[in-house]
Amino acid sequence: MSDQVNDQDFKAFGERLALLLASSAFPEKVKQSWAELIPQMDMAQLDRLSKILEQNISEGGENEEFAEQVLEATQQAQQAELHAQEEALDSLNEIEKQLDELK
User: Fold this and answer.
1) What is the pLDDT of residue 38?
2) How far, in Å, CA of 98 to CA of 14, rounded?
């Protein structure tokens, strides 16, 4: 039963986030970029995005520069994380290669 409630909560949150994004006054470029990043975001990032969108709607879209800065920072953080994952994978591959050579 609790899994069903969590699934319903996540679905409702996702629908709300989509509605906020569509209703915001941000440029389409920013909206599209966020839409592409959402599947990669963790819950803290999604919650932060939700608050930014709510603020944008309540202010009538007066904070576009801030939104673009947040988007850029989010993209940079995700690129850094991707780079770190690639480095870790390369290291693991090197260790595996060395272990194979010992056999």
Assistant:
1) 86
2) 45
